[in-house]
Fold this protein.
Amino acid sequence: MNRSVSGPRSRRSFLTLAACSAVLAGCREKDGDTGAQAIRLGLFGALSGSEAGLGQYTDMGATLALEEVNAAGGVLGRRLEMVREDNRTMAGESATAVKKLLSRDQVVAVIGDGNSGRCLEAGPLCQAAGVPMVSPAATNPKVTEIGDCIFRVCFTDPFQGAVMARFARETLHLSKVGLLVDASAPYSLGLASVFRERFAAEGGTVVSEQRFSGGDKDFRAQLTALKSAGIEAVFAPSYYHSGGLILRQARDLGFDGPMLGSDGWEAPELLEVAGRTAEGSYFPVHFSPENTDPLVAGFLDRFRRRFGKPPTGVSALAFDTLQLIADALRRAGSAEPPAIRAALASTREFQGITGRISMDSGRNARKPAVIIGVRDGAFRFLRVVDPGDPGRASS
């Protein structure tokens, strides 16, 4: 199990914040209520456990946005309050967390986990309650298919799978690729399926597919089988805790071809685990700190001053998620969930840190993707990809 990004002290502080939020009494306000009572939002995620990096960086991004909204006077003349629930990276815990947020805390909107499987677990509860859930980074298409209360601010798996297939063919000039897939994760399975179809359409061949289960730490047998199949590269859509081990073990076995991943690879732990074996790997992300846009530069500066470290892409996505909910509240003129839902669905050209966001008819954000390569021990910006055509780069 990887250690959390922020260490034990930060983990205790996250859980303390959650406990303090939980004891605050209150109920959902009536439409038009302009009293001092805070508008309560919920957040559930992996604040501890094997994917704590994902959850804690999500929380930091949402926290910074919350503080900035409140410092600017709040929304509808009222403060925003965020109640946190830790699912501990465990199956079943997300449903429990969301039940608390909906019934006990009476939140009017929920910021979802960045993990697709855990959003698929919790989303039906939000849908049944009529409370909008917005995930910063759950990319599986099935997440928003739950119903009209479920949204995302990230691109989807079909888009990033197509992006990586086109990148493999047109930029890396690969013909034969092997897949290494987490059979327990809808996120990984969905990405692999799209990549396989699109890579074949581009004239390439997936010559072998190997599978593992979430929590596995030894991938040597699968990597040996892929290498023996004569592949030129490996596509391993997964999260950073397995991605780092896959990179290290592939190089230990003597495989020196490109290693392709997914947006779940983006976390400092990937480089901590893989070390220099991460060189020559590529994956898509939603945000690059090397972007020279003044909005991005300002966000980077504020995040570093607040938390003492640079943000990850999920931090920027979470920042945009909370700001998008605040924007929906303003446009709705109400903190009632149906009004928030309608305003979220009508979002067009919202200027976020991760790009301009418009919601399509399926409540999926249309926005650019960024391809990252690992070079000299760091994540380096390669190109921006337009959402309308995964093969067309823009500067």
